[in-house]
């Protein structure tokens, strides 16, 4: 955040601040720079789509590259490019960077354009739309990749225990009861698994419990952590009771073992996303997928949407074509050839019935349930600069409590104090 804000002070002397076209000429020759943040097959797919767009629009040239050695390195690369005026027209960005990028004062605001009916902005999930609008005002880009957590259950484990499969109407109490029945100490079989590494894996598994109970992560102004509300305490108490009293939860210190144990029929249920389905299909694991259990009829899930962020070079022609290309790229016709072809969830609800997506579902059953579960992704994870420290604070608290160390309220109160202090320092 410091680097991005400092870069803003250099705007007056950066090359881009000299500007370009002040009147739109849609036929003028334009060169766009696009940092995809991708590699290997994903990069090849996107390069092919850029070439196709160039063929349809001969006046547009798109310089495509990954932008950095890895996606994680893109934020630092963007920070440096702001200072030198060499930033791209379009870049892939993790959703967690959205507020920082908006604060750079280099992003385009496309709110007016995406309100046009032909964009069908409402087809993107609520979490994706809100991530693209980090301040609640300016829209800085389009969703690029979406996911969500769903409940995956191992039918072999369920059948062996004589337990009925989960349904889309399950409550958390239904879930807890089933996890207890599925657990068998004699065979080291557990009903459920949860990360206690203290990482973001630990944290984001907790957010649906908080949201379904009516809680929020942050105050409305984003300055104070509020996950230690009554809803937060109730959620952590529920998980603690499963782990400590029922002993039905495999506590994973690594974030990796629980998937392996699930695939080998040692865990009955996990909450995970589409990335897990390929591994399960390869392993030959028998499984099913439903939305997360709910509370009060709410089955809110958590999503980690990433973005195609658009940047302002004070050139109306470049801004026009950067928008038109990104709009084209995220349309259903192109997305089935990018996200769907690559094995990601489709960006839009309208793609769920497409032949391309149905073919992927044949390969990875349950992918359609996860795609439909996007309608339950109504809450965005915060994109504030202090989120990493906030996640570490609550992740540590959750891990300790699930391992029988401390009580939920005291742990969450301490984590909220640490998180709020971290937010104040950003």
From TrEMBL:
Superkingdom of source: Bacteria
One Pfam family, short name: SBP_bac_8
Family annotation (InterPro entries): Bact_solute-bd_prot1, SBP
Name under which the protein is recorded: Extracellular solute-binding protein
């Amino acid at each position: 955040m410091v680097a991005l804000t400092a870069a803003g002070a250099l705007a007056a002397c950066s090359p881009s601040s000299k500007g370009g076209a002040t009147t739109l000429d849609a036929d003028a020759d334009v060169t766009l720079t696009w940092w995809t943040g991708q590699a290997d097959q994903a990069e090849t797919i996107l390069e092919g789509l850029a070439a196709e767009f160039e063929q349809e629009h001969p006046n547009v040239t798109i310089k495509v590259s990954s932008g950095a050695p890895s996606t994680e390195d893109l934020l630092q690369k963007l920070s440096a490019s702001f200072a030198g005026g060499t930033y791209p027209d379009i870049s892939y960005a993790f959703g967690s960077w959205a507020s920082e990028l908006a604060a750079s004062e280099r992003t385009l605001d496309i709110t007016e354009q995406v309100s046009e009916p032909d964009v069908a902005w409402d087809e993107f999930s609520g979490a994706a739309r809100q991530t693209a609008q980090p301040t609640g005002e300016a829209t800085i880009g389009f969703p690029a990749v979406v996911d969500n957590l769903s409940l995956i259950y191992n039918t072999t484990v369920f059948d062996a225990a004589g337990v009925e499969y989960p349904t889309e109407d399950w409550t958390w109490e239904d879930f807890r009861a089933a996890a207890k029945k599925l657990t068998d100490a004699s065979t080291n079989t557990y009903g459920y698994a949860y990360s206690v590494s203290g990482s973001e894996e630990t944290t984001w598994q907790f957010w649906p419990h908080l949201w379904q109970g009516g809680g929020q992560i942050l105050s409305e102004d984003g300055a104070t952590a509020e996950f230690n509300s009554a809803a937060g305490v109730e959620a952590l108490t529920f998980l603690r009771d499963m782990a400590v009293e029922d002993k039905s939860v495999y506590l994973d210190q690594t974030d990796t073992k629980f998937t392996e144990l699930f695939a080998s029929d040692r865990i009955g249920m996990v909450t995970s996303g589409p990335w897990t389905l390929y591994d399960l299909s390869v392993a030959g694991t028998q499984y099913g997928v439903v939305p997360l259990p709910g509370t009060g009829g709410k089955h809110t899930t958590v999503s980690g949407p990433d973005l195609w962020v658009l940047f302002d070079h004070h050139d109306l022609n470049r801004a026009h074509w950067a928008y038109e290309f990104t709009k084209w790229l995220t349309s259903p016709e192109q997305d089935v050839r990018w996200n769907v072809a690559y094995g990601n969830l489709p960006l839009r609800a309208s793609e769920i019935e497409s032949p391309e997506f149905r073919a992927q579902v044949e390969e990875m059953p349950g992918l359609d349930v996860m795609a439909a579960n996007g309608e339950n992704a109504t809450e965005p994870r915060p994109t504030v600069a202090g989120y990493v420290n906030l996640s570490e604070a609550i992740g540590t608290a959750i891990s300790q409590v699930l391992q029988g160390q401390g009580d939920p309220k005291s742990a969450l109160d301490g984590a909220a104090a640490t998180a709020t202090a971290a937010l104040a320092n950003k």
